[in-house]
Every structure is written in structure tokens, then in C-alpha cells.
Amino acid sequence: MNIDLFIPCIVDQFFPQVGINTYKILKKVGCNVDYPFEQTCCGQPAFNTGYRKDAEYLAKKFINIFSKSDYVIAPSGSCVSMVKIFYDRLELPSDYQSKLAELKGKIFELSEFLVDILKISDVGAKFSGKITYHESCHLLRKLKIARQPRILINNVKGVEFVELNESDRCCGFGGTFSVKFPELSTVLTSDKIKNIEESGAQYVVANDSSCLMNVEGVLRRKGSNIRTMHIADLLASGI
């Protein structure tokens, strides 16, 4: 199976190991993986801050790059939802709209692709620790992905999984939301941290690096021993 890997900006700039581990996982399960070097941002930051023309330019670039792919896989529910949901809100030319309609059926978030398309629930990962799971907003609310990450986490040998109270509650990041509404963002993050601490977990896993960056920042400032981990890092453990 031929895969084109899309690595979001925040992964590329701050969490490159997530991209590397996504590649390792896909290779481990038998995929032929390519990384188109001309890729850039999907346009979500521009879209969320009202720069529609810039978002449209980036959307057209994204469609041009990936429209001929067999599958496009990304370690981010947020960026995949941008393509599958929010590109429809842009004023794209009709020829791009037709390409987009086809592309939306070929782009998947990593855990969704593994469980629903490849029918894999165990990638052979091994990790020792007590883990809880945070559901990022776009992954859950827009892509309706909830069971797939849990299936994969529960099949990692050595993991003790505990559910997080209010796992579906926003962590407070929301991209530019945390900049525009810092007081509200702080309250949401504080509530999330409280639930994580009360879970007794050693690690909190999520499918979006932006959520984890936000949560980890607060945990570090508090001097907490709890660590954050992208699901790709967990699934690549021991393989």
C-alpha cells in the first residue's frame, strides 16, 4: 500500500520525532511511505485567524501536492479535519473542489488509518507505564475518532490504561484561541491538568502535538512528574 506522509507544521518545527515515528509505524505495518518535500502548512492557522485568501492559497497548494496520492496519512486530527471539513468553507475554484472531494476520501489521521483501513489493532509496541488519554477537539468532534486510539493504546504490551475524567474536554489550547482568550484558556487547561493528576497516570497520550505542548507546559511549570506523549511515540516504542 502506497502512503504519502503529511507532517503538520508544529510537528515539523517542535516534535520531529512524532513524524519520524509515524513513518516507522507505517513501514512496520507494511506500507510504502513517501514524503513529498514540497509540502507546507495546510492553512489552518491562517483560516482560524481570518486570513481566508492565504488559507485558500495554501489549500490549493496542498490539493496540488496530494490529489494524486493513494492515501495521505498525518499524525494530527486537527490538520486532517482542516482538509476534510474546513476546506469546504473556502472559496476554491470548481476544479479544486472536484479534486478535494476525492482527496477527502484518501486522507486519514494515523490511528484511524491503522484501525479502520488496515484493520490493525496491535502494531507490536511495548511500553511500561500507566497511561491516560486526552481527546483533542477536532479529532473527536469533527472526525468522530474516539475508539481507535483506545484500541491501539490498550494493545501496547506493558501499558496500564486508565480513562481520564472529562477526557473530551478541551485542553485550552485551540491554536490562536489561547492567544485571543488567555484567561479562558488558562481555566480550561487548569481543569484538564487537575483531571490528569487525579487519574494517577504517569503519562498522558493524545493524537495532536498542539494539545500536548499546551498540557506539558503547565505540567513542567508545576514541577509534575507526569509526562506527555503523542500516540505515534507510544506506538513506535519497542518496534
Task: Characterise the protein shown here.
There is one protein chain. The chain is α/β, with parallel strands linked by helices. It has helices at 9-14, 16-28, 44-48, 52-66, 77-84, 94-103, 110-117, 137-142, 147-154, 177-180, 182-199, 209-221, 231-235, and strands at 2-5, 32-34, 72-74, 107-109, 126-133, 157-161, 203-206, 227-230. It folds into two domains: 2-115, 3-Layer(aba) Sandwich (Rossmann fold); 122-235, Rossmann fold (3-Layer(aba) Sandwich). Helix 11 crosses helix 12 (209-221). The longest helix has 18 residues, at 182-199. The relative contact order is 0.15.
CA-CA gap between termini: 20 Å
Q: Which residues form runs of ≥5 with pLDDT under 50?
A: none
What would you report as the Rg, rounded to the nearest angstrom?
17 Å
Average pLDDT level: 96
Instruction: Report the principal-axis shape.
Output: globular
The CATH topology of the largest domain comes to Rossmann fold
CATH top-level class of the largest domain: Alpha Beta
Taken in chain order, the helices and strands follow as EHHEHHEHHEHEHHEHHEHEH
Sheet of most strands: 4 strands, parallel
Instruction: Kindly report the oligomeric state of this protein.
Output: single chain
Number of helices: 13
Total separate domains: 2
What is the helix fraction of residues, given as a range?
40-55%
Judged by helices, strands and strand pairing, the structural class is alpha/beta
Strand order of the largest sheet: 2-1-3-4
